[in-house]
Amino acid sequence: MPAPPQPISLGAIENLLPTVNFASHAAAEAQMVWGPRAIPDYQLFYIQSGEAVVQIGKERFVLSPGDCALYGPHCPHKLTMRSEGMFIGIHFLYSSPSLAPVHPAFGIENRSEEELSSSVRSSYKLAIAGPEELELPPYFTIPGLEPILTRIVKEYLNGQPGYTIVMRALMTELLAAIARNQLTRQPKSDDQRKIDPALLAISKEPEKNWSVAELAALCGYHVIYFSSLFRKCTGESPKQYLISERIRKAKFYLLSGEKMEVIAERLGYASVHYFSRNFKEETGLTPTEFKQR
């Protein structure tokens, strides 16, 4: 029996630069088969109608309308339509400096049934917050995905000016939706629950200069124990976490067109100069450079 492959880290979700290589919306006849094969990128296979079976390594998933499979280049797979139906297929890369689509057909490799059945599915992990990573599911059902998938297909087929950057934005939204759905399915650890009041307070009032003692008191713990627990759960000290939350909200406000003076005041900075300096220390870019990029 082959040993399970090591999980493949995709990096932090905030740093993803997804590129759509191919997108299609098509009809398929009953018993239509793709594979066994290995692809050069990643694929989302979404069933609109009918039923399909996806085999990834030894694992088999039955897809009904609204179901989606997700797999990558590291393991052979096979798609079989059990009945006639409609599907949406998106080939993409999680992170690529280039926006130009590279059609996957040139990199698809045929595999044997033996290679398929003897392989083991690879797992893919995204860094969300702190030291923990989130494993993306190979099979899922998430309400609301179909409109995003349909828009990606339309952008790919129409090829209007700027379509590649629009596809990147839509793909980022799609991946965020998958990650959030997976997070809601993971039970919180006891340690995570203990610091939830502090996390909620920082999220609601990032402009407040929260002291560690105030945050510890919200959770009902001694400062030393709270600080140790907080770092264990988030990978950051309470002070650094507060700064990170401010920068995250600052990015949103900047991209929403807010003026720097307004953002600085809203997030509790004494001046625009201090806000700009803190932003560059955390991101490596000035607020103006971040907006330009």
TrEMBL record:
Keywords: DNA-binding, Transcription, Transcription regulation
InterPro entries linked to this entry: Cupin_2, Homeodomain-like_sf, HTH-like, HTH_AraC, HTH_AraC-typ_CS, RmlC-like_jellyroll, Tscrpt_reg_AraC-type_HTH
HTH araC/xylS-type domain segment(s): 196-293
UniProt-listed Gene3D superfamilies: Homeodomain-like, Jelly Rolls
One protein family per Pfam: Cupin_2
Molecular function GO terms recorded: DNA-binding transcription factor activity; sequence-specific DNA binding
PANTHER family named in the record: ARAC-FAMILY TRANSCRIPTIONAL REGULATOR (PTHR43280), HTH-TYPE TRANSCRIPTIONAL ACTIVATOR RHAS (PTHR43280:SF28)
Protein name: HTH araC/xylS-type domain-containing protein
Organism: Paenibacillus montanisoli
Lineage of source species: Bacteria, Bacillati, Bacillota, Bacilli, Bacillales
